[in-house]
């Protein structure tokens, strides 16, 4: 049974930082690219960023580029999202997702990802 469990969300002030973690189990972690998505109230789920199976390539949405960084530790089956210079508009539930892909391609579309976590709330106060 595949499980993705996010943690690290919370309340932070405008300009602050948070690091989210996503622990994967029940799958061969190194066979998956990993993505982060978010969904704000009343809005559709949107792509935040993704990283290849080996951590050699990453890609970000324009709205977070230069502020967010994705990394992974394959020995720990964990992917991270470091979020700096947070803004109130970053407030959302953040989800990690797994895409069975062992090449250099990264995708931004929700349908590409086979497995999803339950999400963790991030709230940025102004």
Note the topology.
Blueprint: E1 3-7, E2 10-13, E3 18-25, E4 32-39, E5 46-51, E6 58-60, E7 68-73, E8 78-83, E9 92-100, E10 115-116, E11 120-125
Parallel strand pairs: 2-11
Antiparallel strand pairs: 1-3, 3-8, 4-5, 4-9, 5-6, 7-8, 9-10, 9-11
Largest sheet: 7 strands, mixed
Helix/strand structural class = mainly beta
Counted by DSSP, the helix tally is 0
Q: What low-confidence regions span 5 or more consecutive residues with pLDDT below 50?
A: none
Rounded to an integer in angstroms, the radius of gyration calculated over CA atoms is 13 Å
* Share of helix, binned: under 10%
Structure notes:
The chain has 126 residues and is mainly β. It is 0% helix and 50% strand. It is built from no helices and eleven strands. It has strands spanning 3-7, 10-13, 18-25, 32-39, 46-51, 58-60, 68-73, 78-83, 92-100, 115-116, 120-125. It starts with a strand and ends with a strand. The model has no long low-confidence stretch (mean pLDDT 97).
Salient structural properties:
126 residues; mainly beta; seven-stranded mixed sheet; four-stranded antiparallel sheet; 0% helix; 50% strand; globular
In short:
The chain contains no helices and eleven strands.
